[in-house]
Amino acid sequence: MLPVWLLCFALWVCVHCSTSPLLLVLSLDGFWYKYRSLYKTPHLDQLATEGVQAEYLRNAYVTKTLPNHFTIATGLYEESHGIVGNAMFDPILNDTFNESSRDPKWWDNGHSLPIWVANQLHGGRSGSMMWPGGDVAIHGASAHYAQSFDASYNFSERVDRVISWFLDPREPANCVFFYYEEPDATGHEHGPLSPATGARVEQVDALVGELVAALKRAKLWDRIHLLVVSDHGMAPVTRVSALDEVLPEDSFRAYGTSPVWNILPAQGREHEVYTRLSEAASRLHFRVYRSNEIPPEYHYRSNARILPILVEAEPGWDLVLSKHADSENRTYGNHGYRPSLDWMRPMFVGRGPSLRKGHRVGPLANVHLYPLMGHLLGLPPWPSNGSLHAVRHLLQPAPSNLPLLLAAASVFLCTTVGLVALVVCGQPRNNSSQEDEEPLLLLSA
């Protein structure tokens, strides 16, 4: 009877595995949503044809890389998750943060729960291929598979590692976050409308095609939800202004990166610093806010790391600390400006068994990706600034439970038949003539 039990177990495994959700989130840093209409992106276009796409993502302020990757991962605005810039100062910790900071004190504020951690708390295994924060212990654990950022790994090598995590025979991942630093680097160097950036965008699209081909070879394509996102767009920069044209060096400290700076005035000099900045704002093409006057739509007030004064350059301008900065090294593209600026808007495309086919929606706030990802993984909801209601129109209509019930019934029936057969066939046989005749008597009764 062993073959019957093996058949039952195999059937259960098939039913279970065929419905286990997989999620792969690929971030293409600095992929402005209009790149898809300006340049040739056939692989992203094919994903959109087979799945869903948003007109663009509404990202979080400041529109920088680390803050928005952590917003996508947690569903929280920057004032709530605490990564308020690629560089920042915490007056409570009396310490500074930069892009290489991995100490949990910066990332784990007690209520931010990245999807990769939530997935593991509920029995899954997560991977982070260079995603900001994925290699940091949050709620006591980083992603099970975690590769820190290393530009020496090319895209193909990263794909191979990610596929190996999904296919690991003992500890397979069911959720992986994958970061790639282009076309951001090229956009910074040459600007969003340059031929070099156009060529890079088309190369990145080809790499997306390479990833899709690898998922198909690995027999993962029919099970996986692939979300391709970005953190921000890219704006052309042609002019530069400097803070030291306005402020004495000993009157302030500035934290952040152009075009947005958090300003910490020297003790007793806040009024002086604010007044000097306000008087120069129009001439030097920037905006200045006290922290309690920052526009509410920025969701960028309620955190100690947001310092007393915020300065934000106007689009097209870089804002540097010193006018002696080498102008030959300034960027020709930048980001960080207000999210409502068209240049800052990133892209979103998704494809998978639970997502609708060929469905296009309007603008989508990136905080809503968090409940969407949790839903795709079958996780219970966790408090965030996002809403599952806002993304339900991306999902396939709820399927009938009939196929699952039939599969469960098949497993139950097969198991029952096997058990009965085991009991019946396991009875000792007696060759006496009387007992041989008893079944006939019962049948005739």
UniProtKB/TrEMBL annotation:
GO terms for molecular function: hydrolase activity. Keywords: Membrane, Signal, Transmembrane, Transmembrane helix. Residues 1-17 form the signal peptide. Pfam families: Phosphodiest. The chain crosses the membrane at residues 402-425. InterPro entries: Alkaline_phosphatase_core_sf (IPR017850), Phosphodiest/P_Trfase (IPR002591). This is Ectonucleotide pyrophosphatase/phosphodiesterase.
